[in-house]
Design brief:
This protein is mostly helical and about 60 residues long. The chain has one domain (about 20-64). It is about 60% helix and about 0% strand. Helix 1 crosses helix 2 (about 40-64). The protein starts with 19 loop residues before the first helix and ends with a helix.
Amino acid sequence: MLWAGELEIQDVPVNEKLTPAQQEEFEERAAILEFEGGMSREDAEKRALELTLAKIKKAQSEQG
């Protein structure tokens, strides 16, 4: 499995490190997308990272 920091997503700051909880959420999302969504592992991990980082960005913007 790829670690989130190894993926490059256009217009998404992937250089920030994920906390252990965020990494776990990323891995769970990727697994669901792969096995339940029928995506390839690579595509599932990319999409999971996009979703995880979007959630982080939203939380940060709500904090002010």
